[in-house]
UniProtKB/TrEMBL annotation:
Source organism: Moheibacter sediminis
Keywords attached to this entry: Cell outer membrane, Membrane, Signal
Name this polypeptide is given: OmpA-OmpF porin, OOP family
Coiled coil: none
GO (cellular component) term, any one: cell outer membrane
UniProt xrefs under SUPFAM superfamilies: OmpA-like, TSP type-3 repeat
Length: 456
């Protein structure tokens, strides 16, 4: 009889713990993306060089700036909050010169800006048709400084800019970029070629060379006149500058990909992965991703990690056999089961327990067999008594779990009373939450929902 009850109890314990652990660990396979740390790099440095065009030069058409003069450069540092939105701090330089057929002038402009960035490639799902091309929209305010040799002071102004950057992925660390950005300067006091917008008239000096007419020399002369300043006819709040540039972006960080190119695994792929993980090739009830013994023999009883509980098939769980071997090598299995003192030690050691489902006070049917060992011991020792200690897992409040653990202890007490033991010999105590499981994985909580025994 004793040989029958011992394996039944431990087989039941293993099966119930395995079922609960597998069920609860599956929940943890795919954590909520809300709390999941980003699996991509967020920082990048961008260097660009190219041309510019100052679209309006309000003097006359002969003073227009050179179209796409090759004197533009900018440097930016960008941070992506996620795969779609980010922020960029940048500095730019432009040198604006005259067309070949215009009066000479040279103007420089420095700007320092802060721009918002939208990864249109991810917003518009470019990944559906390409993995190596994307578009970034960027825009924001800037502080600009305008300099020209013909003006007495630096012209400082507020600017707004916006643009599109085409990205061509070269590797996980580099991307080639082609950018077009429009900038408008508000409040320019001077034109691009250095004319004051505040002067109503301009002084124009014309030199007329000497001439010979009918053998008579007419001396040259210099004529000075006042003409209306065309720069006053145009608003100082409309001063566009166009930049077109080619550049290189470097992504830094210890992740494999940058946010510009990172793709979240789609739901169908996640489901496929979970289904693959939950396969049980050896049909032992433990999914492959948890199975530490993936080739268990048919019908073998295994623990929560898929390891065979009774590898030699003698009806005694391996954990008990190992305990006996380590502590009572001379007695053997049969000697232990007939020895009251050894059985007492087994009970007090915590090996024999009764387990419960989540938020339940009715024990698993298969784990009730462990109660019979306590009953047998009490029948062999009429003067002995037993403490029945109930526990709960860390989920829930302390007061609720205290009451739950008491109900569990009372339920086991009634089972023992029903097997012929006087209630006066049984002291049921609820212990509340088992402190040793606080902070443990959810998969370990099954082991906390139990009743243990202490011989008195």
């Amino acid at each position: 009889m004793k040989k029958f009850f011992l394996p039944v109890a431990f087989f039941a314990l293993a099966i119930s713990a395995q079922a609960q652990e597998a069920q609860e660990e599956i929940v943890e396979v795919v954590p909520s993306s809300k709390y999941k740390a980003a699996n991509y790099n967020k920082w990048s440095v961008e260097v660009n060089g190219g041309g510019n065009n100052a679209i309006y030069n309000w003097n006359n058409k002969s003073s227009d700036a050179k179209f796409l003069g090759l004197w533009h450069a900018d440097l930016g540092v960008r941070y992506m909050f996620n795969t779609k939105f980010g922020l960029k701090a940048d500095a730019g330089y432009d040198r604006i010169t005259n067309r070949d057929d215009s009066p000479e002038f040279e103007t420089t402009q420095w700007r320092f800006g802060l721009q918002g960035v939208i990864n249109l490639g991810r917003v518009l799902s470019f990944e559906d048709w390409t993995k190596s091309f994307s578009l970034l929209f960027h825009g924001g305010p800037a502080y600009s400084i305008f300099q020209n040799d013909n003006i007495p002071e630096d012209d400082e102004m507020f600017s707004v800019m916006a643009g599109l950057t085409a990205q061509f992925k070269l590797s996980e660390k580099f991307a080639l970029t082609l950018d077009a950005t429009g900038i408008n300067n508000f409040g320019m006091k001077y034109t691009w070629n250095g004319l004051s917008r505040n002067a109503e008239y301009l002084t124009v000096t014309t030199v007329i060379p000497s001439q010979v007419v009918n053998g008579e020399t007419i001396p040259g002369q210099t004529v000075t006149s006042q003409v209306a300043n065309p720069a006053t006819n145009y608003t100082r709040h409309l001063n566009p500058l166009l930049n077109v540039s080619l550049g290189l972006t470097y992504y830094f960080g210890n992740k494999q990909q940058h946010a510009d190119w990172y793709l979240e695994e789609d739901l169908s792929q996640r489901i496929d992965n979970i289904e693959e993980m939950l396969k049980d090739d050896d049909n032992d009830g433990v999914p492959n991703y948890l199975d530490q013994e993936p080739n268990s023999a048919p019908d073998a009883v295994v623990d929560t990690k898929g390891r065979t509980i009774d590898a030699n098939g003698n009806g005694v769980p391996d954990v008990i056999e190992q305990y006996i071997k380590d502590n009572y090598p001379a007695a053997g299995n049969a000697g232990v089961l007939s020895d009251s003192n050894i059985l007492k030690q087994l009970i007090d050691s915590g090996i024999i327990n009764v387990y419960f489902d989540y938020d339940k006070s009715v024990p698993f049917d298969a784990s009730i067999g462990g109660v019979d060992f306590v009953v047998e011991y009490l029948k062999m020792n009429p003067n002995a008594s037993v403490e029945i200690l109930g526990y709960a897992d860390p989920a829930g409040g302390a007061s609720y779990n205290q009451a739950l653990s008491q109900r569990r202890a009372d339920a086991v007490k009634q089972i023992i009373v029903g097997k012929g033991i006087n209630a006066s010999r049984l002291n049921a105590k609820g212990q509340g939450i088992d402190g040793q499981f606080k902070g443990s994985a959810v998969s370990a909580h099954q082991l906390a929902r139990r009743v243990i025994f202490k011989i008195k």
